[in-house]
Amino acid sequence: MSNPIIIETDLKDILAKLDNRLERIETKLEVLPKIETEVSQLKEDVKDLKERATAQIWALIVTVIGATVACSNYQIRFFD
Q1: Mind giving me the DSSP string for 49-76?
Q2: pTM
Q3: pLDDT confidence of residue 12
Q4: How many CA atoms, within 13 angstroms, populate the side-chain half-sphere of residue 74?
Q5: Residues 6+ positions from 28 with CB-CB distance below 8 Å
Q6: 10-residue mean pLDDT series, the chain (80 residues)
Q7: How far is residue 7's CA from residue 14's CA, in Å, rounded to a whole number?
Q8: CA distance 73 to 65
Protein backbone atom coordinates (compact mmCIF):
# COMPACT_ATOMS: atom_id res chain seq x y z
CA MET A 1 0.00 0.00 0.00
CA SER A 2 2.97 2.30 0.12
CA ASN A 3 2.99 2.61 -3.67
CA PRO A 4 -0.15 4.79 -3.85
CA ILE A 5 1.40 7.27 -1.42
CA ILE A 6 4.60 7.45 -3.49
CA ILE A 7 2.61 7.91 -6.69
CA GLU A 8 0.53 10.66 -5.08
CA THR A 9 3.66 12.41 -3.85
CA ASP A 10 5.28 12.11 -7.27
CA LEU A 11 2.17 13.51 -8.93
CA LYS A 12 2.18 16.45 -6.53
CA ASP A 13 5.81 17.17 -7.43
CA ILE A 14 5.06 16.89 -11.13
CA LEU A 15 2.03 19.17 -10.82
CA ALA A 16 4.05 21.70 -8.83
CA LYS A 17 6.75 21.72 -11.51
CA LEU A 18 4.14 22.11 -14.25
CA ASP A 19 2.51 24.95 -12.34
CA ASN A 20 5.86 26.67 -11.96
CA ARG A 21 6.57 26.31 -15.66
CA LEU A 22 3.13 27.63 -16.57
CA GLU A 23 3.72 30.67 -14.39
CA ARG A 24 7.03 31.34 -16.16
CA ILE A 25 5.34 30.98 -19.54
CA GLU A 26 2.60 33.40 -18.48
CA THR A 27 5.25 35.89 -17.39
CA LYS A 28 6.95 35.64 -20.77
CA LEU A 29 3.63 36.04 -22.56
CA GLU A 30 2.93 39.21 -20.57
CA VAL A 31 6.20 40.71 -21.82
CA LEU A 32 5.56 39.74 -25.44
CA PRO A 33 3.36 42.75 -26.37
CA LYS A 34 6.05 45.12 -25.07
CA ILE A 35 8.66 43.36 -27.20
CA GLU A 36 6.38 43.55 -30.24
CA THR A 37 5.94 47.28 -29.67
CA GLU A 38 9.68 47.80 -29.40
CA VAL A 39 10.32 45.79 -32.58
CA SER A 40 7.70 47.86 -34.38
CA GLN A 41 9.37 51.06 -33.18
CA LEU A 42 12.75 49.77 -34.36
CA LYS A 43 11.29 49.06 -37.80
CA GLU A 44 10.00 52.63 -37.98
CA ASP A 45 13.38 54.00 -36.86
CA VAL A 46 15.21 51.96 -39.51
CA LYS A 47 12.78 53.16 -42.17
CA ASP A 48 13.34 56.76 -41.06
CA LEU A 49 17.11 56.32 -41.15
CA LYS A 50 16.92 54.87 -44.66
CA GLU A 51 14.83 57.82 -45.82
CA ARG A 52 17.26 60.29 -44.27
CA ALA A 53 20.24 58.53 -45.83
CA THR A 54 18.56 58.60 -49.23
CA ALA A 55 17.80 62.31 -48.84
CA GLN A 56 21.41 63.02 -47.84
CA ILE A 57 22.72 61.08 -50.83
CA TRP A 58 20.50 63.04 -53.20
CA ALA A 59 21.52 66.31 -51.56
CA LEU A 60 25.17 65.36 -52.05
CA ILE A 61 24.57 64.45 -55.69
CA VAL A 62 22.81 67.75 -56.34
CA THR A 63 25.62 69.64 -54.58
CA VAL A 64 28.29 67.91 -56.66
CA ILE A 65 26.38 68.56 -59.87
CA GLY A 66 25.84 72.19 -58.89
CA ALA A 67 29.52 72.63 -58.03
CA THR A 68 30.54 70.99 -61.32
CA VAL A 69 28.25 73.27 -63.31
CA ALA A 70 29.44 76.33 -61.39
CA CYS A 71 33.09 75.43 -61.97
CA SER A 72 32.54 74.76 -65.66
CA ASN A 73 30.75 78.11 -66.04
CA TYR A 74 33.54 79.85 -64.17
CA GLN A 75 36.21 78.26 -66.36
CA ILE A 76 34.35 79.20 -69.54
CA ARG A 77 34.08 82.82 -68.39
CA PHE A 78 37.66 82.82 -67.20
CA PHE A 79 39.03 81.69 -70.54
CA ASP A 80 36.75 83.92 -72.67
Answers
A1: HHHHHHHHHHHHHHHHHHHHHHHHHHHH
A2: 0.54
A3: 86
A4: 6
A5: none
A6: 61 91 93 93 96 95 90 64
A7: 10
A8: 12
Give the Cα separation of 47 and 60 in Å (integer): 20
- First and final CA of the chain: distance in angstroms? 117
pLDDT value of residue 71: 82
Cα Rg for the chain, rounded, in angstroms? 34
Residue type, 20: N
Torsion of CA 24, 29, 30, 31, to 10 degrees: 100
Say how far apart CA 25 and CA 19 lie, in whole Å: 10
